[in-house]
Amino acid sequence: MMTACLAFAAMAALITITPGLDTMLVLRTTLTGGRRIGYLAALGVTAGCLTWAVAGAAGLTALLAASRTAFDVLRVAGACYLLYLGGRALWQARRRGTAQEDVPDVDVTARSAFRTGLVTNLLNPKIGVFYMSLLPQFVPDGAPVFVTSLLFALIHAALGLLWFALVALAAGAARRALSRPAARRRLQQITGVAFIAFGLRLATTH
Fold first, then answer.
1. pLDDT tens-digit series, residues 76-100
2. Structural domain spans, the chain
3. Which residues contact 176 (CB under 8 A, 6 or more apart)?
4. Does residue 107 contact residue 31 with C-beta atoms inside 8 Å?
5. Stretch 136-158: mean pLDDT, rounded?
6. CB-CB neighbours of 20 under 10 Å
7. Are 139 and 3 in contact (CB under 8 A)?
8. What is the DSSP letter of 15?
């Protein structure tokens, strides 16, 4: 079991540090709202991943993988949500560019940060399919599948929280340099385009 846990941890670490939507979300949230808000976004991301992991261990994501309609409905909903986040970021940047005074961020509260991290994961069916296909490969022969899968999910969650904490720490240190209105507008534009790109990518996934 120890060997299986170490092998999964190594794989999960590589997947975790690969740049993607979750890392960008924590980075952007920290830069706009501070480290505490970034940590809460990371907790939302982790909660979403754990929810998918439990569903996968219980066999629920197998139903999702078997049903093209269910997969597509969740995929389109997730894509629309990401497009909404991207469009809102671009609109906020435009308001800052046209207003005489700096416009405060609208989505940096603790509740909304956690909710955004959670929803972006729950509406991404690829995460469910990922857990369903990856975790069983590391379960040793004779080991209880459900319990072992949950253990792997907790390992992945712990690695994710550690990585996001480092991301938030670095982003928090850089936040002062990006406090100027022009820099914050540019940040909103970049993250808005990135959210839209992730949304379009999810929308075209089969």
1. 887 888 888 888 878 877 765 554 4
2. 21-75+99-177
3. none
4. no
5. 84
6. 11
7. no
8. H
CA-angle at 26, arms to 150 and 65, nearest 5°: 45
* Distance from C-alpha of 81 to C-alpha of 97, rounded to nearest angstrom: 24
Angle at 19 between CA 15 and CA 23, to 5 degrees: 95
Q: Which two tokens stand for residue 106?
A: 């609208």
pLDDT digits (tens, 9 = 90+) for 21-68: 888 889 888 888 888 999 999 999 999 988 888 887 777 666 666 677
* Burial class for 94, CB neighbours closer than 10 Å (0-12, 13-18, 19+): middle
Residue 27 CA, distance from chain mean position: 11
Q: Which of 127, 95, 179 is nearest to 16 (CA)?
A: 127
- Overall size of the chain counted in residues: 206
State the amino acid at position 40 in one-letter form. L
**Residue of 147, 129, 141 lying closest to 60 (CA atoms):** 129
Q: What share of the chain is helix, strand, coil (3-state, %, to 5)?
A: 85, 0, 15
